[in-house]
Design brief:
heterodimer, A: alpha+beta, Multidrug efflux transporter AcrB transmembrane fold, Alpha-Beta Plaits, 5-stranded antiparallel beta sheet, B: Multidrug efflux transporter AcrB transmembrane fold, 4-stranded antiparallel beta sheet, 14 helices, 67% helix, membrane (chain A), transport (chain A)
Chain lengths: 577, 400
């Protein structure tokens, strides 16, 4: 044993720690946006959080891919709200929507299964080309063609120049053909048949939104052809659609398709999606590719049969929340099970089947928690958390000083440096993996104060053990460290295991709590190894710190001295004997 | 003053905790039975997350009418048509707020209600002016809490399995078992206290319960680490029994356990006082309360339950029973011989590999020299020789 285990070069460790801290703060200030604020959860800064719980018929876990699909769709809906910083994350089998700030109230309805309707295609599709500078130009592939003019060939996506090219980065509006827009449109508008009675139009509860919906209804749901035409011209398929989910089924509708590449003039809804009993994607038995087969409830089957009989060769549009999902052509009268054919691959077919089953979401969701926190309350919570943390730290400082006297300063230093390293990591993780600090996370950090302090305590009690055995402070440090290290490592391992399991398996706010707890545990190890131990090693060489009266180790040292004396006496006696 | 505190501080092994284990078992059994009984018969006071409903909260600082509980109740009744489940004021000072709880409201009820509350009270927000946005609300379906609980139970199961594996590898089977019993005790007692006192159970509470498991186990790990150290090579020695070694370990870590629990509970108390005082109810208060209860339960169980159980499990092993018998026999012998009072106090530092090996060699040598096949009984004769060997060691150390 050339070098005693536990013997270290303290300055080297401290330098390593300083380097780590410097690197972390450099990353905080010189990378990303340089904003040194951790990302706060909505319960600390105000905002809306909605947790959507999937409803499956059997109560089983929904397939992951459906969940991801739903996440994507809801993300689109959230973006449609036009609020910044909104997020949709998969949390266990739930989706959590968080919208910071005060604009998030509408987020509550995002998880609703969309309304699926069947509408007659009166005019369209017309290519949507609303790059602002081009919009007023007549001719060319424009949406200006009057809907009543059968001679005007529709400009469909297939003919539009940009189609087929890779999607542009910038303002390219025309995109690839919609995966579910499969039929070659046929321009054959006829007067709409009398719509069946439909449920009354819903209106949003928010008065401001209600007004918006009202004006959009007047414009785009008019039965006057000239108004429809104007609506068709002015409709911007890329803008947020106030009619989303609020279209009146009893009136005609000017709408875009889901990609925003085509516009349609649609008749009133003649059949509601609620009449669909089931929808499935199947391999096409008579041809290549995939088809979607659906069956209606009895009443729906009746309506569908009658409608298809009367409208063979025409287009029928499926709309979801006022957007056209697809507009296939009716090939023959259909009673009973219906097959929708098209150029589907399996994924497209399954998606469409899901849409037909549930509305646009592949799963049906229930809002299991919806919370709007005012900025005031969020601020108060943040303050309370901070104050609690500060008081907790102060109490620990005081107790540390009381119990460990001068060496308590090392404890305080360890805790302070621990805080100094937690902060940049929090900021960086907020940037890199979107870690948000929420109220539960604050509680996690406060609990972690105890864990960090404990590593120190374990080490110190070991030191005392060694000194009780008669060693000097100086010689007790390396031996005490070797033994304390093992205990600290195993105790932290258990603590980390607990937070890891919680993080991976739990949902909701548990995650934040578990993450901060686990994070603190790991950082605690860094601080103990690179700061606490070297500092104590340095202290062992210092006259002030190793003064038994000041170090709080006096009692143990006295016991050790006593023991040495007794041993010496005993040995003297036994030698004498 | 030098009495209890000093013994505690220096950890010289003066508290016979393991020896009185039957007392602890009885006490813990009563406690656990009461807790289980309360959970079964009284159940829990489940919060809004389990029952479902809507909660509205806004600052009590208002520009118009003072927002007292009765006035708020009146506004609610006027808009919704019936009484809310509860209206209370929470927190204090600038953070004081009014809390309304009701059955689940949909948007068509919530929006006018918020508007009416705003019109009547004009609550003032952070900006200093009344604004509608300061009214917070949360709507929870009754399944939310259940879902969190289900996930929490799954997490609990996985955690227990992993921890058992970890402990079995790191320690030994009986230690893993004892730690698990202590862990289960903590869960049951914490839940039981919630049921007994009628604290409201929220998802935060369930979360808090899980985190104290890690903490409780952490405590036990530290104690067992010392037990493991103190009992190394124990079977080859006749110095003390397993129970005595474990008790010594407990005493040596006693002040650490107390300190650790204190250090952990101090910030948590601060959290609770601030959480309740400033905000009234909420995540902070819920988490802090369950953790405080859990930390205390965890500290008690790691001291008074885990190690005694470990000792009982160990003593089922015949080897440890025989060793205990040898210790007893040796002591009986030694009692006849003149007792060297001072030397009796000194123990070989069996944590040290070199010393331990030396001690084991010595015991073997003694057994061989005495011509006894087993290393039994005659050890007492050589008692006088031992301290001499021991003295050589510290002297050597001091020279280093």
């Amino acid at each position: 044993m050339a070098s005693t285990p536990g013997q270290i070069r303290p300055w080297r460790h401290l330098a390593a720690f300083v380097a780590i801290v410097a690197a972390l703060y450099a990353l905080v200030f010189f990378t990303g946006d340089g904003n040194p604020r951790p990302k706060l959860g909505i319960d600390l800064q105000g905002g809306t959080r909605v947790t959507l719980q999937p409803r499956t018929e059997t109560g089983a876990e929904p397939p992951r891919e459906q969940l991801l699909q739903a996440q994507q769709i809801i993300e689109q809906r959230v973006n449609g709200l036009g609020v910044g910083g909104a997020e949709v994350v998969v949390d266990g089998s739930n989706l959590t929507i968080t919208v910071p700030g005060q604009e998030g109230d509408q987020a509550r309805s995002l998880g609703q299964t969309a309304q699926l309707r069947f509408r007659e295609v009166v005019g369209g599709p017309y290519a949507a080309q609303q790059q602002p500078q081009q919009q007023p130009q007549p001719g060319a592939p424009q949406p200006g063609a009057p809907p009543a003019d059968p001679a005007a060939p529709p400009v469909d996506a297939g003919q539009a120049p940009p189609t087929g090219q890779p999607q542009g980065m910038g303002d390219a509006v025309e995109r690839d053909v919609a995966p579910v827009a499969f039929s070659r449109p046929l321009q054959d508008p006829v007067p709409p048949p009398a719509p069946p009675p439909a449920p009354g139009p819903a209106a949003p509860a928010d008065p401001r939104l209600a007004a918006e919906v009202d004006s959009a209804r007047q414009m785009r749901q008019s039965s006057d052809p000239t108004v429809q035409e104007t609506a068709l011209l002015t409709l911007d398929c890329n803008a947020r659609d106030p009619l989303r989910g609020y279209d009146d089924p009893t009136k005609p509708l000017v709408a875009c398709n889901q990609d925003g590449t085509e516009k349609y003039i649609l008749g009133p809804s003649f059949l509601e999606g609620t009449e669909i009993a089931s929808a499935q994607a199947q391999a096409n038995t008579t041809g290549v590719g995939w088809v979607v087969s659906l069956t209606f409830e009895s009443l729906g089957a009746q309506t569908w049969g009658e409608y298809t009989t009367n409208n063979v060769g025409k287009l029928v549009a499926f709309t979801l929340d006022g957007e056209v999902v697809s507009a296939p052509r009716i090939n023959q009268p259909i009673f009973g099970p219906t097959q929708i054919e098209g150029q589907f691959n399996q994924a497209d077919a399954e998606q469409l089947a899901g849409v037909l089953r549930y509305g646009s979401l592949p799963l049906s969701f229930e809002s299991s928690e919806a919370q709007t926190v005012s900025a005031t309350l969020g601020l108060a919570s943040l303050e309370a958390g901070m104050i609690a943390g500060a008081i907790g730290l102060a109490l620990v400082f005081l107790y540390g000083l009381f119990y460990y006297r001068v060496l308590g300063i090392l404890l305080i230093l360890s805790l302070a440096l621990s805080a100094a390293i937690v902060y940049p990591v929090l900021v960086l993780l907020g940037r890199w993996i979107g870690l948000t600090l929420d109220l539960a996370g604050v509680a996690g950090f406060i609990l972690a104060i105890g864990i960090t302090a404990d590593s120190f305590i374990i080490f110190f009690e070991r030191l005392k053990d060694e000194m009780r055995d008669g060693r000097t402070f100086r010689s007790a440090v390396p031996r005490g460290w070797v033994r304390a290290r093992r205990t600290i490592l195993s105790a932290d391992a258990v603590s980390f295991l607990c937070s890891a399991v919680l993080y991976l398996l739990a949902i909701g706010q548990v995650k934040g709590f578990a993450f901060t707890l686990g994070l603190s545990t790991v950082l605690d190890l860094i601080v103990v190894f690179l700061v606490t131990h070297p500092l104590v090693a340095l202290a062992a060489k210092s006259r002030v710190f190793s003064n038994p009266g000041l170090s709080g180790l006096g009692e143990a040292a006295r016991t050790g001295a006593e023991r040495r004396r007794v041993l010496a006496a005993a040995s003297g006696r036994s030698k004498g004997a | 003053m030098a009495g209890v505190l000093n013994r505690l501080y220096t950890g010289t092994g003066a508290f016979d905790i393991v020896g009185r284990r039957r007392v602890w078992y009885a006490a813990f059994s009563v406690l656990v039975l009461i807790c289980i009984g309360s959970i079964v018969f009284r159940g829990f006071n489940l919060g809004i997350d389990f029952t479902g409903g809507t909660q509205i909260q806004f600052p009590a600082t208002t520009a118009a009418a003072p927002a007292d509980v009765e006035a708020v109740r009146g506004v609610y009744e006027r808009v919704i048509g019936h009484e809310p489940e509860a209206v209370q004021s929470a927190g204090s000072g600038g953070s004081a707020s009014i809390l309304i709880r009701s059955e689940a409201l949909d948007a068509s009820q919530l929006v006018p209600l918020k508007q009416a509350l705003f019109d009547t009270f004009q609550p003032i927000g952070a900006s200093g002016a009344p604004e509608l946005a300061v009214i917070s609300d949360s709507a929870v379906s009754g399944s939310w809490g259940g879902q969190i609980t289900r996930q929490a139970l799954i997490a609990l199961g996985v955690f227990l399995v992993l921890v058992t594996i970890f402990l079995a590898f790191y320690f030994e089977r009986s230690m893993a078992l004892a730690a698990l019993v202590a862990l289960l005790h903590d869960v049951v007692v914490t839940a039981g206290i919630y049921s007994l006192i009628g604290f409201e159970v929220s998802p935060s509470t369930v979360i808090g319960l899980l985190t104290i498991l890690g903490f409780s186990l952490y405590d036990t790990v530290v104690v067992f680490d010392k037990v493991k150290e103190n009992t190394r090579g124990l079977l080859g020695l006749t110095r003390r029994t397993y129970a005595e070694a474990a008790n010594l370990a407990l005493n040596q870590t006693l002040i650490r356990s107390i300190n650790t629990s204190l250090f952990a509970v101090l910030p948590v108390i601060a959290l609770m006082v601030i959480g309740v005082g400033l905000l009234g109810v909420g995540t902070l208060a819920d988490l802090a309360l369950v953790q405080m209860v859990g930390i205390i339960a965890g500290a008690l169980s790691s001291l008074f339950l885990a190690t005694p159980i470990l000792v009982d499990l160990k003593m089922r092993d015949p080897r440890f029973q025989q060793q205990a018998a040898r210790v007893a026999a040796r002591r009986a012998k030694a009692a006849g011989v003149t007792v060297d009072g001072a030397a009796a106090d000194t123990d070989p530092d069996i944590a040290d590999d070199a010393v331990l090996a030396g001690e084991l060699r010595k015991e073997r040598a003694m057994a061989a020299a005495a011509g006894v096949p087993a290393r039994q009984a005659r050890g007492g004769q050589h008692r006088g020789a031992r301290p001499a060997g021991k003295v050589a060691r510290p002297t050597g150390k001091r020279q280093r």
